[in-house]
Amino acid sequence: MPPVRLAPREELAAAARVAPLLRAARDLGSWAEQHPEVSARQILDGSDARAAAEALELTPDELDAAWQVVAAASEQAAGGDPLSSWGRPLASCDAEELLREWDVALAALLAAEELDGLATALYTVGSPVRIDALFDAYSAAAGSGRDDRQPAGETERKGTGGDHRPGQQAGGAPDPSEAAALSHALETLADLGVVELGTEETAGGLTVGLSPLGIWGVHRRLLAQGWHVPVLGGADRDGAIGLLMTLASCDAEDGESEISSWLIGRTEEQAAAELVAAAAEGSPGLRGAAFAVLDRIGQAAVGEVRAALDQPLLRAHAAVWLHEHGEEAELGPADRTWLLVDLGAGLLEEADARDVVAELLPDVTPEAQAEIVAGLWQVSHPGVIDLLTTLSEHHPDPGVARAARKAAFKARSPGAGRS
């Protein structure tokens, strides 16, 4: 998931306070309390629906969406966790109460409509998209999960033998019924303040994207589901590890901003100590990132980096870093070989296997690569077997692939990796 920047709580609460759907749900809840024959745990239809719509001046779609929120609030109260803000004027609710109420409303909509994948798609894209291109983003984010749900009409289209994307006819044009459903979904999300509609000349027409409130709400849901959802400007909450994990998802400009923000309020020596500690605890990718950030500190980090020479996982990184900063440090062939494996293991955390193979030894001839790879089985590194397996399966040169295959076999043998 792309890194996002979360708006201040008061700003989020102000947006929730004026969301038309939240206000409609509160009005509908008050109306329901005056009509004991109506239960918030049943579908509001027939004469009850007509009476409520007429009394509150709501369209049928607005009434349905508002009733979903009322029912969710009622179920939560029945479960012993009532919303403290429910029933009180919106203007008198504090930010935390209001955001909790809005979050319940969002969960109700995403559970009851085909909106969860749409909201996730917009979050994944990370910027406003053209509405006529939204089907592509939705397909990419929802994937097979949407196929499993099979919205109305999907089974019939599959039965005709077409393999076009959900929401598209065989010729590539949006299916009219799905286009209408998408328009309705966007209106519902807009009424809760989840999305914003706009126009951009560069995008070539009408666009839609998550609002700051929508980003906050979807971020909470993805975080609860176990996704890694980095937050720009929030790395400091988790120390150096949080910074390094955020940088893994940033572009260069955002990364520089994150590093600068993180360094503020720390002495250079303190920052260096935190980065070295994070490198010792983290994965190969985080180790490489930590020493790259140490470049921003420079000479003030020399003491901490020199101390890292005593740690097996950091020794090679520290020696190279010291050499690059004009300091003396022993750096032998074994250190360079170990660093090569660590670099490869770090690349495998994020990159496609074929890209790792291409980037690992880009300027070395195949013959020299085969010689280097043949000796990697002796390197005592937890990622050496995975790296050798990747090289054996994806290296375009048969000689290098064969050397990697033999080295992987040796690395798996008892007593391997003693160097």
Describe the fold and architecture.
The chain has 419 residues and is mostly helical. The chain folds into three domains: 1-152 and 178-229, no CATH class; 235-331, no CATH class; 340-412, no CATH class. Helix content is 61%, strand content 3%. Strand 2 and strand 3 (205-210) form a beta hairpin. The longest helix has 19 residues, at 60-78.
Brief summary:
The protein has 22 helices and three strands.
Arithmetic mean of pLDDT = 81
**Helix/strand structural class:** mainly alpha
Using only C-alpha atoms, the radius of gyration works out to 28 Å
- Give the tally of structural domains: 3
Could you say which overall geometry the principal axes of the C-alpha atoms support? elongated
pLDDT < 50 runs, ≥5 residues: 141-172
Number of DSSP strands? 3
Write the element-wise H/E pattern from the N-terminal end onward: HHHHHHEHHHHEEHHHHHHHHHHHH
**Largest beta sheet: what is the strand line-up?**
1-3-2
Q: What distance separates the N and C termini?
A: 39 Å
Q: What's the story with the biggest beta sheet? A: 3 strands, antiparallel
Proportion in β-strands: under 5%
Helix share, percent: 55-70%
Number of helices: 22
